């Protein structure tokens, strides 16, 4: 016997991928002996996913009939195909074992996949069909059809397995498999007609129409190697004089049953696959065959949303082509109008979730099809997008997943990046699925659980070099698919678009004008101009705008000022130009579009700032980005800004921009209910503090020369600023103080005055004013703007009035020298928390309060509507709390706070205020504070008076969370709350 050379040594076999080396070597020797060829020649082209399985299969076939195998392996192409097919599919190896003569298919040219017509002709020829009727209806015809089908399947598999980039032809292979299934159905129907001739007149069979409608993957031409073939049968009569409609349905039902039995019944040649007709009307309980009219009646009256989703992929697969075309033409309008049904989107979403819930937890990590990140995530996402947007866009009325993705991209409904990722992942998952099913020609969607199985999958797909690598690839694809699916499948715009009334989907110009007026636009002509500017053109941006605009206009109309909202949106869109993330985020993000429309239609304050800071739209993608960044982060950014700019003007221009940006962030968070009123007040206070601190650092560096660096300067917050209770539009009440600290007195005063002037100059912001109000300083407007700490001490201890001590209750250092702030705080404490109660001062405070109510109200204003000075509003609560602080803070430490609500809580704890009255005061203070901010947010202007105009009041009510048209409810609530608070105030303040 010839000595085996190195090419067939055990190590050589290992290099070729064999793992059962001894058994493989013995099998190769046996195969070489049977075929009478050298072992080395057998291994030429031995590139197989599982070479051990391949050689086992080849040996089994050779033992049965060596001649066809010898002929196949004689050529390099034949050997290559044989190893690929036998190494990837034990199922096809079993087929060739049963029918060795069919090996010749692997010798034929496979440069291209067989066409639909070629497959149909081959299958019909296998049963000698003529005019749609097989020569015989016996079991031999069934076997012949099944063998012909599997021969075609082997040809498709050979093309697939020898292609250098199989993932790129997944779609073509799936289409060929669907065409082969259609051809098999056609052949089985021909056999059924022949069988039925034994009991039914031939002319009645000929006049009976039966269309087989492919559903699911067979309808979309994206079938697997082994899959149920979902169908619907439609019957009828072509000639009522020959066979009545009811009789034709009976005949068609018998034909349908025999057609199914011919493919999935038990015969010598194993079944091909199950023909599943459970998608028919009424499912398993329904008639197997219905007339076209019966189908349509069911869809009109009884069909559920999922049934229309199933019809999305329907196409004539076999049988009467004309009847099939009539069926498709009749159901198409129903498919594309189904998305307008109530809760359609939500029902589809729930269906996907139910599928997930029924997966065996042990199988979930391996589920290619149904699991998280699997094929169903891609398919459900694509189908839902099609059904919703296909209401108005006929370009989306496609069947296949990949072609539908292309249509969605072309229409701007999905981003190119997401679509490319989805398409690539879909091809990868389908390739894995194909290889898993080819293995044993079995219906499976589970990845192997063994290292050996994963290694074979890696080699058969060519997607990875090892089992571990293919698992890593699966995990990566799975994560990416799930992320895109979650983002697109639960996109709020889907439900909104699906819910648009039919009359709003397509409108003429005149109809659009009337419709805009009807839904709340006061200037419909202007709105039409804005819509036209946003949607006219051929760019991708305008394409996406056209999709967004119908639902965004409706959302704008749901707000209080849709005209301004649409104008602001146009300006923001124009400012952002072709920025790719903007429209993509509105289309794809969870709730971003609806949030933007809500902001713009309810707040001019926000709209005007967003026009200047359009990139703020990106924050809508995450609630976390709408939360305040905190004082430390803002201070760090402000300091970094100052190091990047050479001049004070440039640095503080950037700081003012920082302030506007953070005010906008806070306003957006407030309107979208991300922040509470307390969080808003804290955020606004911190923004103001950081702004003043940055300005003070810059101005001091510019004004104070090195020789006078010992000068200390500080800014003291007063009023609501001192209490950290700022609202939108609030002034910043402050005091300025300095300590010469060795610098000449007059020089220190002059430098400090220049610092104040610099602060006022550089903090002037015409877009969002920051009013540094020093009117609470000693002697009010008559006194100097800035004093030394000694001057403050002298004044407060000798000359201060009761109201000035009261004002100091809110004093809090916010910028400048920490040492000086500490000294000022000690001074303020000695004045505002006196050891003994000054009865005269208390009486004076009460007298001033009464005078303020009468004198400071604007002329003609309704006192009840004044949010600051009116009865039961801010001043009542604050003056009461401050009086209690002056009287008791020396003994009650909890009262030593600049916060109104914290001091009120301390007063309750100290039994100075009953809890019932305290709650009434809290409620009034919070409501008045929210209303002041809401007025600023709504109108972009500050005001302390609750509007009487119903439209304005309704807009404010919406910002506070009231439903539409709640102006009267808000007004009554406000008057009731303040009335109860006033009663509590009078009892506690005046006694």
How does this structure look, described?
This protein is mainly alpha-helical. Strands 1, 2, 3, 4 and 5 form a 5-stranded mixed β-sheet that branches. It is elongated and about 125 Å long. The model is unreliable at 1-7 (pLDDT under 50).
Topology:
Layout (H helix, E strand, L loop, with lengths): L9 H6 L5 H15 L3 H4 L8 H14 L1 H8 L2 H13 L1 H9 L17 H11 L12 H24 L7 H27 L5 H6 E7 L1 H4 L9 E9 L7 H20 L10 E2 L12 E3 H10 L3 H7 L3 E5 L1 H17 L6 H14 L17 H15 L11 H10 L5 H25 L10 H11 L5 H23 L2 H7 L10 H10 L5 H12 L4 H19 L3 H15 L3 H9 L3 H11 L1 H9 L18 H14 L3 H24 L5 H27 L8 E6 L1 H4 L9 E8 L5 H18 L9 E2 L12 E3 H10 L3 H7 L3 E5 L1 H15 L6 H17 L18 H15 L11 H10 L5 H25 L10 H10 L7 H23 L2
Parallel strand pairs: 2-3, 2-4, 7-8, 7-9
Antiparallel strand pairs: 1-2, 1-5, 6-7, 6-10
Radius of gyration: 41 Å
Distance between the termini: 123 Å
Number of helices: 44
Structural class, from helix and strand content?
Answer: mainly alpha
List the defining traits of the structure above:
mainly alpha, 5-stranded mixed β-sheet, 44 helices, 61% helix, disordered N terminus
Task: Summarize the structure in short.
The protein is mainly α.
